[in-house]
Design a protein that fits this description.
With 450 residues, the chain is of the alpha/beta class. It folds into 2 domains: 114 residues, Urease, subunit C, domain 1; 300 residues, TIM Barrel. Helix content is 38%, strand content 22%. Helix 4 links the parallel strand 7 and strand 8. The longest helix has 18 residues.
Length: 450
């Protein structure tokens, strides 16, 4: 069955950056087979059985790509809300994370995916950094498959650093590599719905040998790496203390940097260090709400863009954000940097839309199949109906409405891999009421344990 949309305003994010007023899209199975004017689409439909949806006054954008979050953390909203990262992590996050059971993880991940879908996310890059019991990786992957979202799963781990009283926080890297190999063989298919990555926690949680082995495994098996980098000054402080050199010099010495590395946060960087990122084609996941929430600082994103460093956007986990809402991230990104650089024109709505779509796809090496609306790409898209919300209407500029006035209520439909996973604002493949009830239960139980 061929499905299609006509009479929509379409932001394609293709190489020509086409914005098509009164446009249409045709989808066959999981692939976009045509993008053009409504008239062109209707002509292509002649003599064929096509299910067409009329969208006058509505907009189609590529599905948003959240390049960094911790889905299970939807259970931890509001805990430790007035702490900086150095206090919040050992006092709040680590005890809660190490108390996770499979049931709690599943409940948190489902809740996080629902919030992602409702904010127009079609691909989520998730980082599961705690593994107190076996089987959590597969449990999360199975939930993502059930709910129809595209998942880049980062298998978090550490082999050194403070355990804060927990005996099993550090792991044997060889055991982690064996699990990653198993997960790739079982779940990573050609459709791109599930990707498996390495997710070393941070430089100060790894031994020299552990970091070296991680890079060797990544290179030999073509497994990309996501890592928290330069979120605070601690990276440099620890490296100066242990190795008598700054963190960037340590990374260069260990041949750790490369185009397969997604550097999450990347706040505390000099201009020269940005040049090193560019030299090695390191990608960046910018998480403005979390960075502001924890008082970590402002990443030099405008400078990154000037240097053509690839930058995507992320929410980070709800424990350090209080939501998994990508719509909120869009507006926050613009306002934060305009304020930081004291220039209203240093970044605009389209820049941010690119970071949330095609640039996010480049961050995860998937720009050939997602991130824009083009013939031959996977059918990942969202439908934005600004007339569904007081916040987003009336519309004088559709992009401005989406970026600056965005609202869950205006995300009418989300399609992933050609399948509707959100329709009329409701999750298709899950019982929303039960998912909320289950997450409330798990949040209460976990809070009582710490």
């Amino acid at each position: 069955m061929i499905k299609g949309f006509i009479h929509f305003n379409i932001y394609t994010l293709d190489k020509e950056e086409r914005v098509i007023e009164d446009g249409g899209i045709l989808i066959e199975d999981d692939i976009i087979i045509a993008v053009g004017s409504s008239q062109e689409i209707e002509q292509l439909c002649q003599g064929k059985v096509v299910e067409l949806e009329d969208g006058k006054g509505k907009f189609i954008f590529p599905g948003l790509i959240n390049t960094h979050t911790h889905l299970y953390q939807n259970l931890f909203k509001g805990l430790g809300s007035d702490m900086n990262l150095g206090d919040w992590w050992p006092k709040v996050l680590a005890p809660l994370g190490m108390a996770l059971t499979k049931e709690h993880l599943v409940n948190g991940v489902r809740h996080g995916i629902c919030e992602a879908l409702k904010s127009g996310v079609t691909t989520v890059v998730d980082y599961l950094q705690f593994h107190p019991v076996e089987g959590l990786s597969e449990a999360e992957i199975k939930v993502a498959k059930e709910m129809g979202i595209r998942l880049v799963y980062g298998r978090g781990f550490r082999d050194a650093g403070e355990n804060m009283g927990f005996s099993n926080m550090n792991e044997n890297t060889d055991d982690v590599f064996a699990e990653v190999t198993y997960l790739k063989e079982k779940y990573q298919k050609d459709d791109g719905m599930i990707k498996i990555w390495l997710a070393p926690a941070a430089i100060w949680t790894f031994s020299e040998k552990g970091l070296e082995k991680t890079r060797t495994f990544a290179t030999n098996t073509k497994t990309p790496i996501m890592m928290h980098m330069f979120e605070t000054e601690r990276d440099n402080e620890i490296c100066l203390e242990k190795y008598n050199k700054k963190a960037m010099d340590y990374y260069i010495e260990k041949i750790f940097l490369g185009p397969d590395l997604l550097a999450v946060h990347s706040i505390h960087l000099s201009d020269d260090e940005l040049d090193i990122y560019k030299k090695y084609d390191v990608k960046v996941s910018h998480n403005p709400v979390c960075n502001m929430y924890l008082g970590s600082g402002t990443a030099p994103v405008v400078d990154m863009l000037k240097k053509s460093i690839t930058v995507g956007l992320g929410t980070d986990g709800a424990a350090s954000n209080n939501s998994n809402d990508m719509i909120e991230v869009l507006k926050t990104t613009v306002l934060l940097h305009r304020n930081h650089y004291k220039k209203a024109d240093c970044i605009n709505a389209y820049d941010v839309l690119k970071m949330a779509t095609i640039e996010g796809a480049k961050c995860i090496g998937m720009e050939e199949i997602i991130g824009s609306l083009e013939k031959g790409k996977k059918a990942d898209l969202l439908i934005f109906n600004p007339n569904n919300s007081f916040k987003t209407s009336p519309v004088n500029d559709g992009l401005a409405s989406f970026i600056y006035s965005g609202d869950y209520a205006a995300i009418e439909k989300v399609v992933v891999n050609g399948k509707e996973v959100l329709n009329k604002g409701k999750v298709v493949l899950g019982d929303e009421k039960k998912i909320i009830e289950d997450s409330i239960y798990s949040a209460r139980v976990l809070k009582e344990k710490v």
